[in-house]
Amino acid sequence: MPKVSDDHLAARRSQILDGARSCFAEYGYEGATVRRLEEAIGLSRGAIFHHFRDKDALFLALAQEDAERMADVAANQGLVQVMRDMLANPGQYNWLGTRLEIARRLRTDPEFAAGWTQRSAELTAATLARLERRKAAGALRDDVPTDVLLGYLDLVLDGLIARIASGHAGDNLDAVLDLVEASVRRKP
């Protein structure tokens, strides 16, 4: 039997995650049945679950991949830039529904919450590190603890995601993000 290359396995995993992302975004976690996942991904359940133990593992892998992408942008350009990117290219963020599903499952599924807390630490760490660097450089307010700034930005991010996912992203959200950015900057 021929050995499958690492490149082929990575490409197949990427195909599965891309298809699952659109399926979860369209139908939510519960509505993304195995049949719908098969149709969205274009592979059989055997091929899908060869790479992922079950639907939950697939969803967690997808959420982790999305959190890593956000962490990269947050670490280099800040969490407000993540939000600006969402507004500029909402079509590239079809994982917004996935983020809402994560929030729902955090509330209703203690096992998921425990696993997600470990996986989401990377985004939190990246954002916190950038805030600390910006604060040390004198660019951010020093009258508010860094963890409070982080909580504030996370709250704005969650609100923005809910707004975009519900189809109510208005033209004034860029101005809102300008206001958010100004509110965390150090006043001269």
- Count up the helices: 10
How do the SSEs run, as a string of H and E?
HHHHHHHHHH
CATH topology of the largest domain: Tetracycline Repressor, domain 2
CATH architecture call of the largest domain:
Orthogonal Bundle
By helix and strand content, what is the structural category?
A: mainly alpha
Tell me the name of the CATH class of the largest domain.
Mainly Alpha
Give the tally of structural domains.
2
Q: Could you report the average pLDDT, rounded to the nearest whole number?
A: 85
CATH homologous superfamily (4th level) name of the largest domain: Tetracycline Repressor, domain 2
* Share in β-strands: under 5%
> What would the principal axes of the Cα set say about the shape?
elongated
- Sheet with the most strands, sense and barrel status: none
Uncertain residue segments: none
Estimate percent helicity. over 70%
**Cα-atom radius of gyration:** 18 Å
- Gap between N and C termini, in Å? 68 Å
